[in-house]
């Protein structure tokens, strides 16, 4: 074994160097694609596929596990930004508009569950996967919005939906996980006990967010930090929140979203720090999506049954989101099409639980795992493109403004 390692280039022996090389490759390809009018995130897709399990095999689950804290930190920035985009006052005042956005989340979950049941999955497994499929991928949506400088009524509604969908998915997943764990052969607790455990994790995550936000508010007031000096305090707060959630096994997703919500809806002072945080977030987008792409097994798309299910689920999620928007007169038909397309991407189990990305795999049978693998592969290949197309269709992109 030592002789084999001795024959490898020195940089290939460093996991950090491999991840760094992948990130460098994703940035170079992404910039080249962006200069030709294509989504920059596909640079991370290409780099991940080339270096990951479907390509050279240099980046796999074992290697990425060594950098879980780094990926969690990148997730913290993304999830905080999702929470910061949620305008609770607008959702409350908008009435029907807010209602149809929530309805879209419900229909996505129910539609996915019905399709999975129809293709022979057990209803418990189907509910577990359907709960995940409620959510919209915040990395894909936020990256596409950032790259295209999108803003407008459709983008605003979709940004609010990303946060709503992740919260709804987390709640649904807590219930389905409690059911799956309580009905496992090695179950230690019944359903009610498991449900209480899941609820406790959510409550503890919310409590940590309130405490960390309080510390952030106190620190900025004591130091009298101006808006341009607050990013460092904010980043320290997010890292502290994520660390506390990790050691207490509480819900990091809920906690990080809640900090963003509090900063957006409870903070009355000016919060002009987006420019300083944006670079770190853009790197986080590339890093997280490169990681997702590296673990994708493209061969699952060559199995016709999982592929057919994945295509049906993708189409149904878009169609049901569009159907939910129909009662509202706030957006034109074209804007509704755009919102439905821009919300097409889906998340993985690891994105919803942040810290415990592998704990859901043991609860799925082979058929369910193949469907999830096909969905992940399809999402990596077409999710960013459809989201980008949706933002273009809304006619709310302003790429030229960044170079003007």
From TrEMBL:
One of its GO terms (biological process) is proton transmembrane transport. Its main location: membrane. It is a multi-pass membrane protein. It is found in: Cell membrane. Keywords: Antiport, Cell membrane, Ion transport, Membrane, Transmembrane, Transmembrane helix, Transport. Pfam families: Na_H_Exchanger (PF00999). The keyword Cell membrane applies. One of its GO terms (cellular component) is plasma membrane. Residues 32-347 form the Cation/H+ exchanger transmembrane domain. The chain crosses the membrane at residues 12-34, 41-64, 98-120, 126-145, 157-179, 199-219, 231-263, 283-302, 337-355, 367-391. GO terms for molecular function: antiporter activity. This is Cation/H+ exchanger transmembrane domain-containing protein. It comes from Massilia psychrophila.
